Amino acid sequence: MDKKILIVDDEPHIRLLMAQTLEELEDEGVEVLIAENGEEAIETIKLEKPDLVFLDVMMPKMNGFDVCYAVKNNLDIKDVYIIMLTAKGQEFDKEKGQQVGADLYMTKPFDPDEVVEKSYEILGLEY
Fold first, then answer.
1. Which among 8, 75, 70 has a CA at the least distance from the CA of 37?
2. What pLDDT, in 10s, does the model give residues 4-27?
3. Rounded distance, CA 6 to CA 24, Å?
């Protein structure tokens, strides 16, 4: 079964940068999906069941914390790995991310090499 990564961010340039960063995983058969807001993320997660989600915190309609909580607690999709991706690096946000079920927390600006390396690791692919 092919692996899937979902990028969720309301900023077009961040979505593009993340998609370009993860481009090499597509050569490994990984499908990269995009959502522009929290509501779209929930629908995509329900429909596509991605293995890994890079989830922005600050978004219109539904923030990343709410999306993460819904996926981990209400949708009963346990095997999705969620990385909260945000410009906020405060300890409070990291704690809130852990409370809602985030598996990892990365701050923007992110290191593209770290994003790729983590993706390979989480998806169980050879790097």
1. 8
2. 999 999 999 999 999 999 999 999
3. 15
